[in-house]
Amino acid sequence: MFLQLLQTDYVALFAIIAFGILLGKVSVKGVSFGLSAVIFVAMFYGYLMNALGYDDFAIPPIIQKIGLLLFIFTIGMQAGPSFFEAFKSQGSKLIILATLSVASGGIVTFLLGWAFDIDFKIAVGLLTGALTSTPGLAAAIESSQSPLASIGYGIAYPFGVIGVILFVKLAPKIFGISVEEAEKRYEQEATADTPELMNKNFIVTNDNIHGKTIGELNIRFMTKANISRVMEPNTESKPPTKETILHKGDLVKAVGTTDALKRVELLLGEVTETKIPRSGLHEIRWFVVSSRNIVGKTLGELDLHNNFLATVTRVRRAGLELSPRPSTRLRFGDKLLVSCTKGNVAGMTELFGDSIKMVETPSFLPVALGIIVGVLLGKLEVPLPGGSSFSLGLTGGVLMAALGLSRLGKTGPVIWHLPSSANALLRQFGLLLFLTPVGVGAGTKLVATISEYGFQLFGIGALITLIPMLIVTIVGHFVFKVNFLSLMGALTGGMTSTPGLSAMDNMTESDAPQVAYATVYPFALVAIIICAQIIGGL
Fold it and tell me: Where, by residue number, does the polypeptide cross the bilayer (predicted)?
């Protein structure tokens, strides 16, 4: 009865997940595997089934595929909004590191294959297994016209998975890096382009602006700051409009960066400590963008000045505060600090939606549609010189679709948005579904592979995994000075290691590894395929 339960696939699936999570909570000298421990339990389970004579035991492949799709899509959705900015700021360094990872892996494969007289049809399989690249294996089999590549892949893949997990877990200790300090530096770098917003009060002393309207002065364009209140002497403050006339002696409250406020001082006059109290008709409050009708529209298109006598003074997005501009395009879940008259609060609420519940309520529709888009994108064939072709494949297509759609924000009635809590749950669930079949499959072949081919190929496969990681880490950390979290994300992306990324995901709350992984993964995928085609053809 017990053995029958052990070989029941759905029982095995949840048993492996449960024991894997428990094992992942065990910490030895501050090192734990987190969710990645599931793959070790899965490998032992596969080995146990093999030892008991159940050679054909396996978790249905569809489980692995569904898990991979969910995990990769949620990574893309999380990293998408910051992916393109990261690509602009540090993408070139990360791509160089990804190239270095694949190129060094290819060179090590060639040299070791030549030194130990290994058939390159097996060696190319070792390369793709060491880099855990199934698309690379497909390219290797096609270029070598031999099934030997799959044997090499099977030998190198287990350590390709385990080696990357161990490396990213131990690297901070080996290189003396504090993950907490790396998180702080990443936050500082991420917010460098979005400096802190401040507010100051000014008294109008400039004779040249006396009697002119805010619209005529074009203060937003001239200073990059926003005017939130205006008060004439001995009167109540009021929200500004384009028609508001400024006079000498008026008090003006402006919101912007330090540089923007300096420009306001040059334009209007002196900074004053005099307070500008709110009037009974005036209100400043936060609104949440939850209305589908305005997602994707710019603040300029909404023309809040004329329609609601209102001014947006701050935009809060994904924990960052942005200075609002007419060209600022609204995203689902944005929070806007608006200065307006009390009579227009109801109209503003209707315009923005202002529903936290709607923003935080998950919908599976964007996940399902986005994965379909990714699958179709992955099947597109791009012709290459020599008559061959290239495609992103399932993983690459879904990742690129998620990145693009999350950046786009809205397509017709579909909002490409997942609340952070829903994203985290789906990402974890997908990861567990992915790791379990991978580990079981590797475990069932472990003994047979060792007895047939010996340990030599295992050692070579391990070197193909380890040497590129050491080279990339040394160059990225000491030469390029890349943030260590981004470096580890780039390393796992260059190794196309989803389990390795999951190990980083459990070490830090920062999205730096995911952003870096998403930045380099598509490029690494192409590079591995090309490298496999070259070595497989030798």
Answer: 6-23, 30-48, 68-87, 94-116, 122-141, 148-168, 364-382, 389-409, 429-448, 455-478, 515-535
d(CA 217, CA 409): 34
Place of tokens 């990225």: 476
Domain count for the chain: 3
The answer, yes or no, to whether residue 194 has pLDDT greater than 80, is no
Asked if residue 238 is part of any domain, the answer here is: yes
Is 284 a member of any domain?
no
Q: Which helix (H) or strand (E) holds 158?
A: helix 148-174
Same domain (yes/no): 389, 417: yes
Q: Provide CB contacts within 8 A for 244, sequence distance 6+.
A: 213, 214, 230, 238
Same domain, 231 and 304: no
Q: Which of 472, 496, 494 is nearest to 484 (CA)?
A: 472
| Same structural domain, 320 and 383 | no
Q: What is residue 461's predicted lDDT score, i.e. its pLDDT?
A: 92
Last residue of a domain, one of 307, 333, 352: 352
Cβ-proximal residues to 247 (8 Å cutoff; 6+ apart), any chain:
204, 210, 211, 232
Interior/surface letters 458-470, b for 16+ CB within 10 angstroms, e for the rest: bebbbbbbbbbbe
Domain span including residue 78? 1-187+379-537
Let me know: does 372 contact 379? Beta carbons within 8 Å: no
H-only helix segments in 353-494: 356-360, 365-379, 393-408, 420-444, 446-453, 456-474, 484-494
Distance CA 468, CA 106 (A): 9
Whether residue 86 contacts residue 514, with contact meaning beta carbons closer than 8 Å, is answered with no
The rounded mean pLDDT for the chain is: 82
Helix (H) or strand (E) holding 339: strand 335-341
Does residue 82 lie within any of the structural domains? yes
pTM here is 0.63
Check the CA dihedral 29-173-21-1 and report its sign. Answer: negative
In this structure, the answer to whether residues 152 and 65 fall within a common structural domain is yes
What HEC string does 62-124 produce?
HHHHHHHHHHHHHHHHHHHHHHHHHHHHHHHHHHHHHHHHHHHHHHHHHHHHHHCCCCHHHHH
> Rounded distance, CA 99 to CA 105, Å?
10
Q: In sequence order, what are the residues at sequence separation of 6 or more whose Cβ sits closer than 8 angstroms to the Cβ of residue 492?
A: 164, 168, 498, 500, 501, 503, 504, 513, 517
**Which pair of tokens denotes residue 163?**
């080696």
Q: Is residue 527 part of a domain?
A: yes
Do 155 and 216 reside in the same domain of the chain?
no
* Residue that the structure tokens 């994904």 belong to: 318
My answer on whether 388 and 245 are in the same domain is no
Last residue of a domain, one of 217, 235, 269: 269
**Same domain membership, residue 104 and residue 16:** yes
φ, ψ dihedrals at 14, nearest 5°: -75, -30
pLDDT tens-place string over residues 313-332 = 888 876 566 778 888 888 88
Domain shared by 153 and 239, yes or no: no
Residue 68 CA, distance from chain mean position: 15
216: CATH:
3.30.70.1450
